Amino acid sequence: MITPINIKGSIRRRLLIMLLGGALVLALGLFFVFQRLAVQLAEESQDNILRASATAILDSASVVDGEIQIDLPYSAFSMLSNVSNDRVFYAIKTDQTFLTGYDDLPFPPAPESGNHEFATETYQDETVRVVVTSRAMTTGENPVRLFIALAQTQDGQASLIARVVRISAWVGFGVFVLVVALALITAKATVAPLVRLTESVSRRGPSELRAVAAPVPVEMVPLVTSLNSFMDRLSNSLSRTEEFIADAAHRLRTPLAIVRTRAETTLMRVEREENRAALKDMIRAIDESSRAAGQMLDHAMVSLRTDSLMKAQLNLSDIVSEIVGRMTPAAELRDIQLKFRLDENVTFPGDPVLVQSALRNVIDNALKFSPVDSCVQISAGTLGQFAFVKVQDEGGGFPTSDLETIIKRFSRGENAEGIVGSGLGLTIASDVAKAHGGTLEIENAQEAGACVSLYFSLV
Description:
Blueprint: H1 11-59, E1 61-64, E2 67-70, H2 74-83, E3 88-93, E4 98-101, E5 116-123, E6 126-139, E7 142-153, H3 155-202, H4 221-269, H5 273-305, E8 312-315, H6 316-332, E9 337-342, E10 347-350, H7 352-369, E11 375-383, E12 386-392, H8 425-435, E13 439-444, E14 450-457
Parallel strand pairs: 9-11
Antiparallel strand pairs: 1-2, 3-4, 3-7, 5-6, 6-7, 8-10, 11-12, 12-14, 13-14
Helix pairs in contact: 1-2, 1-3, 4-5, 5-8, 6-7, 7-8
């Protein structure tokens, strides 16, 4: 069972949020900067034109026969009208007398002679920009100051600002879109080495525990170093476990075999019936212990090697013939014939240790449950994309109620009472078949006995 992964956040999402947040701030900053700059430029442009127009009017003033005369220059108003279609207002007065223009036009505080004072006022329900300038003049014996106020509405300025704001908005939006595209590319490029490392590791088979040698960014060096160290430790651990299982199998089976041999030798010398019965019970217990220990170690070996199959091209005939040859002496002790028939020459990729273990357990099961003076038929061949070995005995078959559970670990059928076994033989065979892309099938033969079929993938 795979332990659920505790997922918290996403590097790609976090990077995108940071980049997009920065892009949004940048776009908004550009928008407000352009907007402010547009307002300042529009105001400065209008102020400069108002200053030039007011100065032109002021310069046109003259004194004739002790009276101030002003010939309003056309150029002063044409400069204002060329910029926009805004309305223009003016007022001209001295310290005591209003001379011409709009007498209700707001007058900001008058500056010193030659200077200009600007203000934004409301006139005739419109916002106007007003400039005031003054000049000292002499009419006879008494000097006077001449004041000129020139005002212009700001519709044109507002239109200009609105146009610049729209342009600024599009520029900001364009910058945002560009940065979004760059952010997506950057996020993908940043996460790409991690994705490649993940794909490289996930494509490996269970037995591929070699170190990661592909170049990685410097930021990933600690991760890859830890991963390589972990795989190295795991490889050493698996090797030690496999050596331990092999060594344990040898060290357990050898002493038990010696004890059994001595018990049989002693049995031949003992004449008293009660002592003979005790020795027979001892021999049976040794057989059960030896078989249980052997099968448990076989199951551990199968569980270990199925995660790291050491495949080679196997010849099915050679493997079955070798196992039949080894088990024939045990079969002959009970007058059981082992008959092997191969329909064709079959080769397939597989782990020789595991395949031999599976076949040995299936044939051994058939021998255990076969009656004396019977036959065990073994056939092999191909069926579709699978190589198969079928083992059929002439025993009592599988109890119908046990067909669905007999393959489970330590599960034994109702007919196994009194027969030495651990309930792991079919489990081992099933695990090996699955590890080789196949399956194990059990059924009761139509004539008599049980039939067990092992299937191995040909590819």
